[in-house]
Amino acid sequence: MDITPSPHRHQSEPADQAPDAVDDWLIAMRAQGLAARTTTERARVIRQAARAAGARPDELDPISIQRFLARAAAPGTRYAYYSVLRAWHRWLTRTGRRADDPTAVIDPPRMPAGRPRPLTRDQLDRVLTLDLRPDTRAKILLAAYAGLRAHEIAKIRGQDIDTRAATLTVTGKGGRTDTLPLHPRITAEAQRRPGQGYWFPSPTRPGRPITGKSVSQAISAALRRAGIDATAHQLRHAYATELLAAGADSRIVQTLMRHSSLTTTARYLGVSTDQQRAAITALH
Q1: How are beta strands 167-171 and 177-181 bridged, if at all?
Q2: How far apart (Å, rounded) are the C-alpha atoms in residues 181 and 199?
Q3: Residue 23 and residue 26: Cα distance in Å, rounded?
Q4: Closest listed residue to residue 232, CA positions, set 157, 139, 155
Q5: 0.85 exceeded by pTM
Q6: Mean per-residue pLDDT, 49-72
Q7: 72 Cβ contact partners less than 8 Å away, ≥ 6 residues apart
Q8: Which of 29, 87, 115, 247 has the maximum number of C-beta atoms within 10 A of its C-beta?
Q9: Is the pLDDT of residue 283 over 60?
């Protein structure tokens, strides 16, 4: 594999002197309809890689990319960074900003095997029996009974919930909007809240919701109080696993999780020993 540094790379030029290409990429991604959270994170990774290499963002070479990836401690982070760098360089070559793609000569990092990490039913019941703040309880219910991500919970508004039709409209990754059936516990929660406006308005940004990070921190703090070592996202794992245990087909679980691929959904599905035993017993 040829990983000779690109001859047009200028080590003496600081990475921050040429941010225009990254800015143009941001515009292109927004035009595609990608979520602001996605575009911002992608730009951050590219600029971080450029600073680490001491190069312009559009002049990274294979060696500097490999060094940047090697610095990532977690396999999942390494793979995510590689995916961003690959998308960046494909865009550069496609738009004529660069003749070669340095990621084409790099072996991609191994994709870590996703293992379901759902909370158990007993753990969920334990945290819900605590004396929780009403907002914290609502956030937990939205994660456990609607499968929402932290940033989706943060943006929930009264008008997103139709208690008569028992539906919830949510805009998630990539700006995709779905309408989902409501669980009765979410319906009951909605009836205690205003029908318009954010459920969780920011205390510091008038007219804006709280952040997804704030949601994650509130749920994680409640789980710690209950003696549970888990994250907010594991409630989404629990949602998928409970659906499967209740007899839902994996394809139905995929639609409720709003995944484009069943492979992604499989990473969330925990299969219990009882389910395995029942399947074996059912064999003729």
Answers
A1: antiparallel
A2: 19
A3: 5
A4: 139
A5: no
A6: 94
A7: 78, 81
A8: 29
A9: no
Phi-psi region of 207 (alpha: psi -120 to 50; beta: other; left: phi over 0): left
Map out the domains of the chain as residue ranges.
15-105, 121-281
Cα–Cα distance for residue pair 155/197, rounded to 1 Å: 10
CATH code matching the domain that covers 15-105, chosen among 3.30.450.40, 3.20.20.70, 1.10.150.130, 3.20.20.140: 1.10.150.130
pLDDT tens for 126-143 read: 999 999 999 999 999 999
Query: Nearest CA to 85 among 65, 70, 71?
Result: 65
- Token pair for residue 169? 């409209």
* Residue 86, H or E segment: helix 75-94
Q: Which CATH class is domain 121-281?
A: mainly alpha
pLDDT at 272 over 60: no
